Fold this protein.
Amino acid sequence: MKLTKTSVLLILALLLSASFVLLNFGSSILFAGHIADFTADKRLSLRPETEKMLSEIKTPLTVRLYVSAGVEKDYPQTWQFSRAIIRLLEQYQNASNGAVSYDVKYPEPFDEVSREAEMLGLKSFYGTDGKNVMYFGALVMADRGDSYVIPSFVELRRNYLESDLNRILLNLNEDRRPPKIGVIAPEQQIGNPRLPFIKPGERWNFLNQLTNDYQLVPISPQAVQIGADINTLIVVMPSYGLPPLGLYALDQFVLRGGNLILLVDSLNEHTNKITDDKTFKKLLENWGIYINPQQIAGDKNNAEEALFDGQALLYYPWINLPAANIEQQHLISRGLNSLIFRSPLAVNIAERDGVRATPLAGTSDAAGYVPAKFAVLPDKAAVLRNYREGNGIPANLVWLLEGNFKSFFTGNVMEGTPYAKQMLEYLPESLNPGKILIIGDTDFIYDDIWSDAEYTAGNPVWGIVPWADNGDLLLRAVDYMSGSHDYLQNAHRPLLWDISLRTLFRNEAGQPLADAYNNTIRRLKQNTLTVERLQAEEKISGLTLDEMQQLDNARKNIAAGEDKIREFNYKIEQETSRRVLWFILAASALSLLTILGVLFGVRLSRSRRRYRNPLEENHE
């Protein structure tokens, strides 16, 4: 039976409609930010750990986002960030079946919402006119009244957004009593141990971050006993070492099942002092930990470039370990991509019965050493002249020890004094298994090594902008040791703002080249600084032959670096175009299959109809 004109028009209309829908869907994915997760690591989807956590939330929680309406006009990038936060909150609401809800308020100058934001303590900033006050922060609250205030969202911290929200929601959901974390460190960084408060402005970024989930307790290096209520103790070894009373306190704390995070050093570059506490060294050896304070470790393969007296040097004792040199299977260090050390000590471990030792980070096999007495010299070129190659064995810089230990002391050091009766009983060996995390570098915790504190004024926790994972390793070590394992699932990861498909493909195409690209950019900046310095000297006093050669080499390096950057961009664009082309071909094939499916369906329907009609006639 032939198709009638009406049937043909109907089929064409259906095909046109299907093509229109496919075209709009494809273009929305490509250009309008349709949330279709084509990323290799599913960066547009919630992490499985986040979905599990949200599904278990029982307490109704609300996230109230404040973003001034004027932000859209004055700060488009910040406005785009706010849209990404809203998209994430929508995912949280859906994954939690409504247990986590959100609303958005748009403060206007001098209105009630603006006054509300100010009363909450949100951090204000001015519009481009320098007059209108704006806000971009959040209030996260539980029905029972507990709450957290994020004074402001910092765009450069965007990769921590999911992790930050998860930690807040976990705290509010569980009505958790924060464990006590003791800290022994230079007094100016944590406040006076005799006072019941700690001034945030005097703390390292990491300690500020720690107070968001834990109760921080400053402890004097002179303390002879660590309180039984201290869950985990962090010790940043002072340059003057620890007195015998303090060493006894550490010894007994570990034997009682305490958790110890220990940062030790020979040369602290921030104080430029060399430490060689022989008694402390013997305490470490009693635990099976061996260090050589006379030798500073270096790594040619993972050394950082640095400027000293205007000269760019690949300075081996400045180490930036990539993911390949970080243990990716352990909960503490899994997913970490960069750990920065300054003149660290190699840490060696001797096997002890009942103690499990796990190396968490170490150099490449291009490790070497320089005597500490030379490492302290201001002339870093002279330091490198005294650098000696190793034997091809990597130097471990971070270890975790777990198990039962024996005491370094033969009895209570206060025995025979009235105070001894007030102390806990002396333990010759472990009453409960303890944990020790040792890091061979005290500079490791300092802000300028791993993070930017520019945005922490009025926002000491969520204003931290890390460029390395030092803070993450320390925080996750506390999570692991204190038993807060739920936190360990909240690793940070990139947050994409522009989610058009071409942008996603470009991000994916650039991932294999990311490290080489960033290193090239860093070397380019170093050479540019060298050229600027030498050109300035040339105008003032002229240059020596060596300096002229150095200037020429720096210019050649800049030209080579710029060529390399252009090469990277070309490769990324080529790969991006290839992926987009494949997507278009796949979409076209899908469209064709859809059209053929419609035609087949119509033909099948008509065939059945033809077959059915004769049967109906016979029946009649």
Confidence is low (pLDDT under 50) at residues 27-35, 191-201. DSSP finds 17 helices and 24 strands in the chain. The radius of gyration is 31 Å. The first helix runs from residue 5 to 31.
